[in-house]
Amino acid sequence: MSESSEGHIFKAYDGALSELRLRAHAMGVLVADQVETAVRALLDSDRKSAELVLFREEQINAYQTDIEAESFRLLAQRAPVASDLRMVLAISRAVTDLERAGDEAKKIARFALASAGRSTGGPSRVMHRPLRHMAELASEAMRVAVDALDRGDARVAHDVARLDRELDQEFEAALRQLMTVALERTRLLRPIFDTVFALKGLERIGDHAKNVAEHVVFLVSGADVRHATAPERGMPAKESQH
Amino acid sequence: MESADLGQHTSKRFNEDMERVRTRVLEMGGFVEQQLQRAVKALIEGDSNLGEEVARDDYRVNQMEVEIDEECGRIIATRQPTASDLRVMVAIIKTITDLERIGDEVEKVGHIAARLATMEKPSDNYREIRHLGRLVTEMVHDSLHSFARLDADEAFEVARRDRKVDEEYESIQRQNITFMMEDPRSIRRALEIMWVVRALERIGDHAKNICEYTVYMVHGKDIRHLSLDDAERQIRDFARGRKGA
């Protein structure tokens, strides 16, 4: 009898863990979609889409609160060991990054709303391509990372890191291009700078996706790789150090 | 939603573990605060060596985060803390995440300070940034103070200052754009300054987060997605309800 009841406890526990993973995955998919929707709203001056992003931001916050509360409840009640503990920690850390990525999408949606009502309009034409491209890269990175979290697959960490590097390069290129435009058309400085922040937000989303992938590596191997590049980051001024 | 009574733990060893971790968090916070002061100093004084030094020293912040994080994981796994003890651990884990991010923002300011040192200084000699830097440094310091003393009232007061930081941020950015329009040759410098101002504004956000964890630690209430007014009202109503019961 004690055997069967123990088996039952295990099952309930596994159930709670996979439920947690499922919710984190759903939250991540929503965040990836927020990124695309926000940028589309910006490019098309589409108020409805921008408002949708702001509305769904509340859902993302609710996801965060729920998943964290559930994680800590599991920690307290079941005192998970080793790999299960890592799972709970990895998920709660990933959720922090997902929420921050969602926050960046929200800021882009706010910019979309503000520029839809402004006479100078949204981002200038030359910026449409980099915005669209960076939005694709950022949401792709996010999707790959949250799928990896769902499957417990650390092998894709490299793919996410590559996408993140591409985003960094795109951002630097777009920034240089924008500065040239700014010098010629000072009247458009405000929208130009808002565009820089939108691009910067997309670049940050890539960082958060990379963090999520690193939490998956921690989950699978127990190795904390978050600051593995710390000595490099201390190197003298790189152009990407904004 | 019982209040944290840090004097009465079921486990003495847990108590000792936790005190040790809290001390390390405060050490980490002290170092981050010092980094922030040095970065702003490097910027204002045009000291590129100091800027680079600050950026280089960020690895120590990262190191501290990983060490404290591991220690917390170990404590949770071995001591099986009760719900309210666990809440303290959670608040600590979250606090060091925000401290680490403050460190990252400071690192950026260090790099930018080094680059700006080679350019001509703006005519106002960074008066506005100096002011914003002071506001933000005080926020970081006071948020850690409320964390150390488990003072939720102070935490609320500090968190409220973030609005002032946001206002300053907006006003400096607007002014910055005006400068650029008047003198397009200053655009490169103005852009660098824009990132500094943004980093400082973010640091204010992180300090506010730390205040929210302190409220969580003391009252057991997650207030991150509430307005501060609503959060304070709910906590007050709850306390009154308990007294009446």
Description of the structure:
The complex is a heterodimer of chains A (242) and B (245). Chain A has helices at 2-43, 47-78, 82-116, 128-151, 157-184, 189-221, 230-233. Chain A is 82% helix and 0% strand. The longest helix of chain A has 42 residues, at 2-43. Chain B is mainly α and 245 residues long. Chain B is 83% helix and 0% strand. Chain B has helices spanning 12-45, 48-56, 58-79, 83-116, 127-149, 152-182, 187-219, 228-244. In chain B, helix 4 packs antiparallel against helix 7. The two termini of chain B are 15 Å apart. The model of chain B has no long low-confidence stretch (mean pLDDT 89).
Fraction in helix of chain A: over 70%
Q: Profile the largest sheet of chain A.
A: none
Largest interface: A-B, 39 and 44 residues
Share in β-strands of chain A: under 5%
Q: Any low-confidence stretches of chain A, pLDDT <50, length ≥5?
A: 1-8, 230-242
Let me know the average pLDDT of chain A.
84
Uncertain runs of chain B with pLDDT below 50, 5 residues or more? Answer: none
SS-based class of chain A: mainly alpha
Output the number of helix runs of chain A: 7
Q: What pattern of helices and strands is seen along the backbone of chain A?
A: HHHHHHH
Which structural category do the helix and sheet elements of chain B fall into?
mainly alpha
Q: What is the overall pLDDT average of chain B?
A: 89
Taken from the alpha-carbon principal axes, the silhouette of chain A is elongated
Shape of chain B: flat
Amount of beta strand of chain B: under 5%
Oligomer: heterodimer
Helix content of chain B: over 70%
Gyration radius of chain B (Cα, Å) is: 20 Å
Sketch the major β-sheet of chain B.
none
Order of helices and strands of chain B: HHHHHHHH
Based on DSSP secondary structure assignment, what is the total number of beta strands of chain B?
Answer: 0
